[in-house]
Design a protein that fits this description.
The protein is α/β, with parallel strands linked by helices. Helix content is 34%, strand content 29%. It has one domain: 2-Layer Sandwich (Nucleotidyltransferase, domain 5). The chain has 11 helices and 15 strands. The longest helix is centred in the C-terminal third of the chain and has 24 residues. It is globular, with a radius of gyration of 20 Å.
């Protein structure tokens, strides 16, 4: 990792920024985004986002220029690939063909990259990614407009994978490689990411995001749902969260969805050694939701930020977006 880096994760409601160095995360901040800047987990106003990012960093007196950014998994194609050993130049030729089921035209309009899972004399086990050149250009121009230099652009599952790799190295005395599941309870969607032996396997998307979850609370109290999710409504919504039947029913439905996905995964992977459900995202701030999930599954709940090995206290708020740190962990040099 460089001397200092900025890790960025963009949600529908806010910009999450982690300032970090070789020792770990130094500072976390969350800035509410203006309306209509992000839709369906995608940035739709790139110039405005660049200006907002620049102003936010200026106001927070952050002068670091190197930045690593997560992109939603829905914006890229991800493929687990096993190939015979080959050179980097041979990989450049062969990787595009691994995505022929998804990209059957205009293959030259995509950039193909990979992360190494394992390499043996017989095979290369890779996590391959395809992303449109247009999207990369958008992120590059956005960062340049903010006075930043884009160092890494990768899906958030790569950020979680980075955390698990570092965590696994710290736990190298374990008898066997670990399996993990991370539940990211985001603004517009909730997703469960499964990792086998610490390597990404599959993501399962759930029906409801947290914005939809708190709509009934916002209607009852008159408080902006974005403020509720950012934890800025104080005690004004606590009674509604305890007693609003629509909200509680939706919390129960989401918890049941989590339980079903875990059960289905365990049925298909009976030898897995998952021993906890790691959680992150704004849903952590909704206590009834966390209570419902805990009461519907057999695994203990742990915050995904516990996967960050750091002596001392982690920056406040990092439990919402540990991937904003994880995306910078893989940067060397």
């Amino acid at each position: 990792m460089a001397a200092k880096l900025i890790g960025i994760d963009v949600s529908a409601t806010s910009l999450r920024i982690t300032l970090c160095d070789k020792r770990g995360p130094l500072r976390f901040l969350e800035a509410r985004l203006p309306e209509h800047m992000v839709r369906d987990n995608q940035i739709v106003s790139w110039d405005a986002m660049g200006d907002f990012l620049k102003e936010t960093l200026k106001n927070e007196n952050i002068r670091v220029k190197d930045v690593c950014v997560t992109v939603p998994e829905s914006a890229v194609y991800i493929q687990h690939v096993v190939l015979p050993p080959m050179s980097e130049n041979q990989l450049k030729v062969n990787l595009p063909y691994e995505f022929h089921d998804y990209i059957n035209r205009d293959m030259d309009k995509y950039i193909y990259d990979y992360a190494v899972n394992h390499i043996t004399p017989e095979k290369m086990d890779l996590l391959a990614v395809a992303v449109s050149r247009e999207l990369v250009d958008h992120y590059t121009d956005m960062c340049r407009r903010a006075g930043l230099k884009l160092r890494i652009l990768a899906p958030d599952v790569i950020a979680f994978r980075n955390l698990l790799r570092v965590y696994g190295e710290q736990k190298s005395g374990d008898e066997a490689p670990k399996d993990y599941v991370i539940l990211d309870m985001g603004d517009e969607s909730a997703q469960m990411h499964f990792f086998t032996n610490g390597e990404f396997e599959v993501t399962r998307s759930l029906d409801t995001g947290c914005l939809a979850l708190v709509e009934s609370i916002a209607t009852e109290t008159g408080i902006d749902p974005h403020l509720i999710l950012m934890g800025q409504s104080g005690s004004l919504t606590e009674e509604a969260e305890r007693n609003n039947e629509t909200f509680l029913d939706q919390c129960n439905n989401l918890a049941l969805s989590v339980m079903r996905v875990l059960n289905f995964y365990s049925y298909n992977n009976p030898n897995n050694n998952i021993d906890a459900l790691y959680v992150c995202g704004v849903g952590i701030r909704l206590k009834p939701l966390m209570d419902e999930i805990a009461s519907n599954i057999e695994l203990p709940l742990r915050q995904a930020k516990e996967l960050i090995p750091l002596e001392g206290q982690l920056p406040e708020g990092l439990e919402i977006s540990p991937q904003s740190y994880g995306i910078a962990v893989g940067k060397e040099g």
